[in-house]
Specification:
Elements: H1 14-17, H2 43-56, E1 60-64, E2 70-72, H3 73-90, E3 98-102, H4 107-118, E4 122-126, H5 132-142, E5 146-150, H6 154-161, E6 167-170, H7 178-182, E7 199-204, E8 214-218, H8 219-233, E9 240-243, H9 250-263, E10 266-269, H10 275-284, E11 288-291, H11 293-299, E12 313-316, H12 323-333, E13 338-342, E14 349-352, E15 365-366, E16 371-375, E17 388-393, H13 406-409, E18 410-411, E19 414-423, E20 429-434, E21 438-441, E22 444-447, H14 448-456, E23 461-471, E24 475-484, H15 492-505, E25 514-517, H16 531-537
Parallel strand pairs: 1-10, 3-4, 3-5, 5-6, 9-10, 9-11, 11-12, 12-13, 24-25
Antiparallel strand pairs: 1-2, 7-8, 13-14, 14-15, 16-17, 17-19, 18-19, 19-20, 21-22, 23-24
Length: about 550
């Protein structure tokens, strides 16, 4: 099902006009009966109105970590409709217009996102840490026509928007507070009857390789990513979700908003990672947590001081989950971290495992609704145990907006993610490296994540990223960029100690022949290490 499934509501056809040609689309598959959505459906209405119709209106829905702002499902819908009415009646939005949303994780951002979707607009959420130059790149690529932002970020948005289109903000700033202006607006708003395959959102990739790409996703994909992941995770209406990924990151959007609201659960939003997340879990008795491996490792330092016994599922994605982190977290909490791999292009996770199906060291198996293969360079499936290119098909898929890189990601209907994987006899998929993280040195293939995990096992190391750098004699050498824990001194002696540690831990040819110490690793707004910047350092 690659073509339109309903009558488009988009008056502004920019997104549809700039999708890839049909022959470059991935194959979408709809094998689960639960994914048989109507031809006309608005994800913002389905996630709120349908739940309220089931009797969830007065259930807790979304709150901030402090509890100062806490809304029921009815209250969130009311606020979302206030944003929608403002955009349509005051600003002149027509279906298909793109709206920039720039905010920290808080209920107001949720209301803004739902307001855009319910109005038939296209939501373009961006990371709170982005600066005006980065925002301008997104504005130009997506041809943004309206902007909504947290008042604390307004300065950067004003520089980026440069007065070219309306910019509204809520919260502290020198400009009017949109939330205060809308507080008494209780007129009803009827969600736009969008087609199931009208574009609902543009998700910009996090820029780990440089220039970001805009991945377009339909209303039906938002619902499909939710329903397939919930089929695996099995949340209930009594669950309380929390986590640290920005809502502008599709991992955060799904785990902190879409998944809980689909089942009548509630979500607690924290604006900053680290201790704030631990405190939110303890205070609100959260049961589901979504964050990255780096955050779970950081949690271990303060985990004994707080009561986290309410947790029952902890999901990890966004970067490789080292086995050492999995084991340390399990030992400290008794919980088995749920590993998963997803991508902005696929919208959310498509390989994972829960409960007794978890095998430490393996990512898992395809979640319901997805097919996954490991392909060789010719596009044929590899034998069991052989490393190849990870490829996936499902009800979501890669559709880059006006980007020639579409033909790289999609191959013969498969979404080829750029990850090196193998599959075992039981159908479990094992991560080896990002395709661009496989280092060839003196004829050896060396997976950077394996070296990183070995370096991380050294007691002095807080963080590590490994890349290949050019070398005349060996083609490339392995170089480790290391952040040390407090109390340890960087220098030649420590570098030698780390090298010797790795030699003793894994095959000696894999050890980092160069070690450089940094105060911090370069990261995207989602927390992913920007290895291309490390490669540029050489």
């Amino acid at each position: 099902m690659n073509g339109p499934t309903g009558v488009s509501a988009h008056v502004d056809t920019f997104c549809r006009d700039n999708l890839p040609p049909q022959e470059q689309w991935p194959e979408f598959i709809w094998e689960m009966p639960e994914l048989d959505y109507p031809a006309q459906i608005n994800a913002g209405a389905e996630l709120l109105d349908a739940g309220i119709a089931r009797g969830w209106g007065e259930r807790p829905c979304v709150s901030d970590a402090t509890g100062d702002v806490a809304w029921t499902y009815n209250e969130l819908r009311q606020w979302a409709d206030r944003f929608a009415r403002h955009l349509v009646h005051r600003r002149g939005l027509v279906p298909g217009n793109r709206v920039l949303i720039h905010s920290f994780n808080n209920p107001w951002m949720v209301a803004a996102w739902f307001g855009v979707i319910r109005a038939g607009g296209v939501a373009v959420s961006v990371m709170p840490l982005l600066r005006s130059r980065e925002l301008r790149t997104i504005i130009d690529k997506a041809q943004i026509q309206f902007a909504l932002c947290d008042g604390r970020l307004r300065h950067e948005d004003e520089l980026a928007v440069a007065g070219e289109f309306p910019l509204d903000s809520w919260g502290p700033s020198d400009s009017p507070d949109l939330a205060a202006e809308l507080a008494d607006d209780d007129e009803p708003f009827t969600p736009v009857a969008t087609a199931a395959d009208d574009v609902a959102m543009l998700a910009f990739t996090s820029g780990t390789t440089g220039q970001p790409k805009a991945a377009a996703h339909f209303h039906r994909e938002i619902l499909a990513a939710t329903d397939t992941n919930n089929a695996l995770l099995q949340p209930t209406a009594d669950d309380i979700f929390c986590g640290s990924p920005p809502l502008a990151f599709t991992y955060g959007l799904g785990g902190l908003l879409l998944f809980p609201l689909r089942v009548g659960a509630s979500t607690v939003l924290t604006e900053t990672p680290g201790p704030a997340l631990l405190e939110a879990i303890a205070r609100h008795r959260c049961t589901f947590c979504f964050t990255a491996p780096t955050a779970y490792r950081a949690m271990l330092d303060g985990i004994e001081d707080l009561d986290l016994s309410s947790l029952r599922q902890c999901m990890s994605a966004g970067e490789t989950l080292p086995r050492s982190t999995w084991e340390a977290f399990h030992e400290a909490t008794g919980l088995k971290l749920v590993d998963g791999i997803g991508s902005t292009e696929m919208l959310h996770v498509f390989i994972s495992a829960v409960g007794d199906d978890i095998r430490p060291g393996a990512t898992g198996r395809p979640i319901p609704g997805y097919r996954v293969e490991v392909l060789d360079d010719s596009g044929a499936p590899t034998p069991v145990g052989e490393v190849g290119r990870l490829a996936v098909k499902g009800p979501t898929g890669c559709l880059y907006l006006a980007d020639e890189r579409q033909s790289v990601y999609v191959e013969n209907g498969w979404n080829v993610t750029g990850d090196a994987y193998s599959k075992d006899e039981d159908g479990y998929f094992h991560f080896h490296a990002r395709a661009d993280d496989m280092i060839i040195s003196a004829g050896y293939n060396i997976a950077a994540p394996e070296v990183e995990e070995s370096v991380m096992n050294h007691p002095a190391v807080l963080e590590c990223a490994v890349v290949g750098v050019p070398d005349e004699a060996r083609t490339s050498i392995v170089k480790a960029y290391v952040v040390l824990k407090e109390g340890y001194e960087a220098g030649d002696a420590m570098a030698t100690e780390i090298k010797n540690h790795v030699k003793a831990d894994i095959a000696p040819y894999k050890y980092p022949r160069a070690v450089e110490f940094l105060d911090a690793l370069p990261r995207t707004g989602t927390g992913k290490v920007q290895r291309f910047k490390l490669r540029e350092r050489g």
